[in-house]
Design a protein that fits this description.
The complex is a heterodimer of chains A (about 90) and B (about 400). In chain A, about 60% of the residues lie in helices and about 0% in strands. By secondary structure, chain A is mainly alpha-helical. In chain B, strand 9, helix 10 and strand 10 form a beta-alpha-beta unit. The chains are: A mainly alpha (about 90), B alpha/beta (about 400).
């Protein structure tokens, strides 16, 4: 599951024209790492929602903004598991 | 009244991306109008259209933001880059960033908005990009220019349809005269070549139709004209307070001497047939420039090739010049109608005409319509030393804008 999510995120970032050559689980999504702007984070969240059916609400944007790639993978996996347990 | 100095010109058009290229095309009848090729969304929708050159969005804005940005914004940025480069001005080094203004007009990113509306209806909320608004809003061309060049003064757009480009130059003059800026980056950008917009013009009976030769479709003032040909393009000028331009040793293309705007108050799309409001726009622009009608050596007409528009403009010109008009031409026979952007591209053509002492003809004006009787320039460019020119731009909504430019 985590591998699938990671692959999805990296593929999305590539499609969004971000350089993912040096991106790994420890890379922050924000300025110190991938450097996603607020609109790019919003797009990534929409792609995740489209791909995995889980949603990050507006009030969670700040939380996602300070995550690393690995932390976002975990957060998505957690929500997918919670959804399927319903 | 004080004039404003044009120090930079940047163009994107179906007949070139420099003032010299565009001027050569309109003088020699090198048409930029083609039948949309098979596979293009406009194929079979219009008989002719004027396409600008391909420009990669990522060449003017960061690649990460370039995936959803309307072409009108992309070509505005390219024209602005060229105009600012031509003016040789660096914001921050040569001018206080707060003393530079940007006024880029146009209808905004309607093609991208339309495509997103389709996505919304097919995929729901997730079909709509978070980049929709920065990629389409009509102020975003001006905002992107400000962002790209670190310009921090007055920034705006103008929405007066096909009069908007001319009006952006007038607005620049107003800002300079009011002392609100030393430099204004002004112009207009339009990207109308998609089916919904074209059908809007076509269903309003405004488009040229029935032409097997696309280069014959736009024929201002001709007896056989039956509508306009849509084109895409952008035109941007850098204009400065004359003292400011002189102090920094800027090269001077020409001066904007005066301008005026009026409204027909007649109908949303049909021009007032007697041309009285358009005539008043010209008279007021001449008065603003401190010139009399006889000082004008060339008129670059709006002349879109519609039945009603060309006749009304001819009536307006005859109102200003009851005996004999100056030499008149519309260059849209070659360029097509770039909507709001035409006002800037045509002001550039008028500047080139003054510089070279050569007045471009109206392409395809084979048989002048008696309802459009004017002192037409036909077939060949006319050699004439000209010190002042008048350029008209009229738009849906009854907007009339006239500019007076001088050498």
């Amino acid at each position: 599951m985590i591998d699938e999510i990671r692959q999805f995120l990296l593929g999305s970032l590539t499609e969004m024209k971000y350089d993912t050559d040096d991106v790994d689980d420890d890379t922050p999504l924000g300025p110190a790492g991938v450097d996603l702007t607020s609109l790019a984070l919003a797009e990534l969240a929409m792609r995740v929602e489209d791909g995995f059916g889980v949603r990050f609400d507006e009030d969670e944007a700040q939380t996602v903004a300070v995550m690393t790639v690995g932390e976002l993978c975990q957060a998505v996996a957690q929500r997918v598991r919670a959804e399927s347990a319903r | 009244m004080t004039s404003a100095t044009v120090t930079g010109i940047g163009l994107v058009s179906p007949v070139g991306t420099t003032a010299a290229e565009v001027f050569e095309a309109v003088c020699n009848g090198r048409s930029g109008l083609v039948r949309p090729p098979e596979g293009h969304p406009l194929h079979g929708v219009v008989d002719a259209a004027g396409f600008g050159p391909a420009i990669d969005a990522a060449s003017v804005i960061p690649a990460t933001e370039a995936r959803l940005v309307d072409r009108s914004i992309v070509i505005a940025l390219r024209a602005a880059e060229d105009a600012i480069g031509d003016a040789g001005i660096e914001v921050g080094r040569d001018v206080d960033p707060y003393r530079v203004a940007v006024v880029i007009a146009g209808v905004g990113g309607l093609q991208t908005l339309t495509e997103q509306a389709v996505q919304r209806s097919q995929r729901g909320r997730l079909g709509v990009s978070p980049y929709l608004l920065p990629g389409t809003l009509p102020n975003m061309a001006a905002a992107r220019v400000a962002l790209r060049f670190g310009i921090r003064g007055y920034t705006s757009s103008i929405g007066t349809a096909c009069a908007a480009g001319g009006q952006s130059i007038g607005e620049a003059m107003r800002l300079l005269r009011a002392g609100e800026a030393d430099v204004v980056v002004c112009g207009c950008s339009e990207a109308p070549l998609f089916p919904t917009f074209a059908d809007g013009f076509g269903n309003a009976l405004a488009l040229a139709r029935g032409w097997s030769d696309p280069t014959a479709a736009s024929r201002p003032f001709d007896r056989r004209r039956n509508g306009l040909v849509l084109g895409e393009g952008a035109g941007v000028f850098v204009v400065e307070r004359p003292e400011f331009a002189a102090a920094r040793g800027a090269r001077r293309h020409a001066d904007v001497l005066g301008w005026a705007a009026t409204n027909d108050a007649y109908h949303p799309t049909t021009p007032r047939p007697d041309g009285s409001s358009a005539a008043e726009s010209m008279r007021r622009a001449l008065r603003d420039a401190g010139l009399s009608a006889s000082d004008i050596g060339y008129v670059n007409a709006h002349g879109t090739s519609t039945r009603a528009g060309d006749a009304a403009e001819a009536a307006a010109l005859r109102g200003v010049y009851p005996t004999q008009t100056p030499p008149v031409s519309s260059t849209k026979g070659v360029t097509g109608h770039l909507l709001g952007a035409s006002g800037v591209v045509e002001a550039a053509i008028a500047i080139m005409a003054m510089r070279h002492g050569l007045l471009p003809p109206t392409h395809n004006l084979d048989d002048p319509d008696p309802a459009c009787e004017l002192n037409h320039i036909r077939k060949q460019p006319l050699k004439a030393a000209v010190n002042a020119v008048l350029s008209n731009s009229f738009g849906f909504g009854g907007h009339n804008v006239s500019l007076v430019l001088g050498r």
